[in-house]
Amino acid sequence: MAFAEPVTLTGRNWVVLEPLKREHADELLQAAKDGELWNLWYTSVGDPDALFSYIDAALKMRDEQGALPFVVRRKSDGRIVGSTRYFNVDAKNRRLEIGHTWYSRSVQRTGVNTEAKLILLEHAFEKLNCIAVEFRTHWFNFDSRAAIARLGAKQDGVLRNHQVAANGTLRDTVVFSIIASEWPTVKAHLRFLLNKPRPSTTANGA
Question: What is d(CA 161, CA 173) in angstroms, rounded to the nearest whole number?
Answer without folding.
Answer: 8
